[in-house]
Automatic annotation (TrEMBL):
Keyword list, A-Z: Transferase
Signal keyword on record: no
Protein name: CoA transferase
Highest rank taxon of the organism: Bacteria
Keyword Oxidoreductase in record: no
Organism: Spongiibacter nanhainus
A molecular function GO annotation: CoA-transferase activity
Length: 404
């Protein structure tokens, strides 16, 4: 029986070791994706407080919700990179690692003696992923960056918000999380390439580049029309009806992507006369008469409950959804059926719920993710098993403040 035949399979990256020199969100999210796929991820944290997010409230028994959210499945070791011996320990670890991820500002790793040129000389197969707000070159290279800054500079904020209102930032920190998407894509591609070349590569992930890429059809719309798309609330700039519609006890999302769905919506809501009406039976006509179409739809939905609307829209195969809060979303039957929330035995918190891996494999079951580590929880074990240090050597390093 192979690992893939039982519930103890770690994942497709179980033979990959990652050195995680990241903090806060963009970098940790990238390392998290690899941990979810089974990689051994060794997170290096500074002495004292560790990753800054360990200090972000609210807390439970001293543990931050923020840190727990993006560090499951990792090992935590504490090394002081401001010491020569600390840097030397990292270099020793690099020799046995496949991937290194860092999200310091450009130039910091070079100043520490841990830049790509120096580390690739130690391990030519090393895949080194740098994640930063603006990338390794360009006029904004050295500027600090946070999620809201990237949303503003990418144009994403300009299209988010109520129609006619002020632009607002996305509730989900996509400006940072895009690093957790593009970083792993680049790393996996480089791992594939390494099979042929035997060599590693430096990956330059700019969060602004990622957000520009996320504009998708909105960028092309600007190219075509020469105009900036504007906030539409929950509506679509070109598709109608598409968005939130009032119900008698709340609101429901209805999405009409093609004329096929327009017919289904009309039949579901008893609006058969409008299905072939030349004023409304094409995408262009409905877009031009957006307010009329929305008023027609809401004239029916406002008299029915959300549950009633779900039932009739589902019966006619119309894309729809109630607008759930986060707690409701996590508890809904589909999420429960997919096992997307699991309990894990945290060292200090006991059983704690965490979000599960978002990628599943139909022919295999991965073992449950390990809990987010406490600060330095694995320092001794990693230095002993990976570098072969003795208990006396580890104790001396602790005494000198190099590790914790």
């Amino acid at each position: 029986m192979t690992d893939k035949d039982n519930a103890n399979w770690s994942g497709p990256l179980s033979d990959i070791r990652v050195l995680d020199l990241t903090r806060v969100l963009a970098g940790p999210a990238a390392a998290l994706a690899l941990a979810d796929l089974g990689a051994e991820v060794i997170k290096v944290e500074p002495p004292g407080g560790g990753d800054e997010t360990r200090s972000f409230p609210p807390f439970r028994d001293g543990e931050s919700h923020y840190y727990l959210a993006v560090n499951r499945g990792k090992k935590s070791i504490v090394i002081d990179l401001k010491t020569e011996r600390g840097v030397e320990l990292v270099k020793q670890l690099v020799a046995s690692c496949d991937v290194l991820i860092e999200n310091y500002r450009p130039g910091v790793m070079d100043r520490l003696g841990l830049g790509y040129a120096e580390l690739s000389a130690i391990n030519p197969k090393l895949i080194y992923c740098s994640i930063s707000g603006f990338g390794q070159y360009g006029p904004l290279r050295d500027r600090p960056s946070f999620d809201i800054v990237l949303q503003a500079l990418s144009g994403a904020m300009s299209v988010n918000g109520s129609a006619g209102g002020e632009p607002t930032k996305l509730g989900i920190p996509l400006g940072d999380l895009v690093g957790g998407i593009n970083g792993p894509i680049g790393i996996l591609a480089a791992l594939h390439e390494r099979h042929a070349t035997g060599k590693g590569r430096h990956i330059d992930v700019s969060l602004l580049d990622g957000m520009i890429g996320m504009l998708g059809y909105l960028a092309q719309l600007s190219f075509f029309t020469g105009e900036d798309p504007v906030p539409q609330g929950s509506q679509h700039p070109n598709l109608v009806p598409y968005g939130s519609f009032a119900a008698s006890d709340g609101a429901i999302i209805i999405a009409c992507l093609t004329n096929n769905f327009w017919g289904r919506i009309c039949r579901a809501l008893g609006l058969e006369d409008y299905e072939l009406d030349p004023r409304y039976n094409s995408l262009e006509q409905r877009r031009e008469r957006r307010d009329e179409v929305n008023a027609i739809i809401e004239g029916v939905t406002a008299s029915k409950t959300v549950a009633e609307l779900e039932a009739i829209l589902n019966e006619h195969q119309v894309p729809n959804a109630p607008i759930l809060g986060v707690g409701e979303a996590l508890a809904q039957p589909q999420v429960v059926a997919r096992n997307m929330v699991v309990n894990t035995p945290h060292t200090t918190l006991g059983e704690v719920p965490i979000v599960n891996r978002s990628i599943q494999f139909s022919d295999a079951t991965q073992s449950a993710p390990t809990p987010p580590p406490t600060l330095g929880e694995h320092t001794d074990a990693v230095l002993s098993s990976t570098l072969g240090l003795s208990a006396a050597q580890i104790a001396e390093l602790k005494h000198s403040g190099v590790i914790g």
